[in-house]
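User: Okay, second chain of the day. Same drill as before: sequence in, structure tokens out.
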Amino acid sequence: MTILVTGGAGFIGSAVIRQLIRAGETVVNLDKLTYAATPEALEEAADSPAYRFVHGDICDGPLVARLLEEYRPEAVMHLAAESHVDRSIDGPAAFLQTNITGTFTLLEAVRRSGGIRLHHISTDEVCGALGPSDAAFSETTPYAPNSPYSASKAASDHLVRAWGETYGLEVVTSNCSNNYGPWQFPEKLIPVMVIAAVEGRPLPIYGTGANIRDWLYVEDHARALRLVLERGTPGESYCVGGDAERTNLEVVRAICAALDARLPGGAPHDRLISFVTDRPGHDARYAIDAARIRAELGWRPEHGFEDGLAATIDWYLAHRDWWEGIRARRYGGERLGLKA
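Assistant: Same drill. Structure tokens below.
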């Protein structure tokens, strides 16, 4: 197939593109190259004649329409999104513009082109917070977003469903749990903590560190997305999770233990743990029931959390020049999302 990927220079998008190119697909990557883009993660794909990069915004309707006309993709994988909760608290407008207006623009272009399968990639955060004993999120869990980011993604999910129902677009949606792995921009929990520990700086944990997330290795997620694109039932959604619930404090302690073994000169790294003011509207727990994608598409994660975390930590230790360059030029690691 020829596949148009939006946001393909991002953390998850770049993992998807690497797998698609290895599988022999032709990929057109439309990306705005915002602060969190990682074009270095696409060097492998860039060497392939089956890969084309287009620098542009999904809110640019004429550009999107031109790409659909020029490349005639059989499918679109829509990953372009603003995705960091803390940034959405400080500046929600960009999230509404990209996640809502951008999705609308893409849907309209696909509707006018016709004959294109659209896979919309979303998040478990649209469902809000779970209590300690609540069942995990599934495809039938009601939406209850609590942050500007998750509200904008919920809106985009609803738009995709509505365009499928009203206009007959062939759409499929997936909602994933927290991803981690190589090339993740160093503002998310795991790279933040790895980098701070390596540098001997405090490890700032929000609140008491009791918030729970379900962790999914990015390459496992990319495999799931390819299966949903190829074989998912039109009009349906699929929850994708790693079956690896951990509190934030447990994650940070695991990072510290791994670094103690790798960098004994800085041990014990857990002495650097500190607790800071919690994020406004911080959801207590996320968890994914991935029974549907296992049963219908035969997917399951190949990486356990411990193995995936070890591989991720090793990658950041081996790519210090990459994240040091980001900290010097684009993002210095400062705390975001303190606005109440």
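Residues 61 and 105 are 6 Å apart (CA to CA).

User: Thanks, on to the next one.
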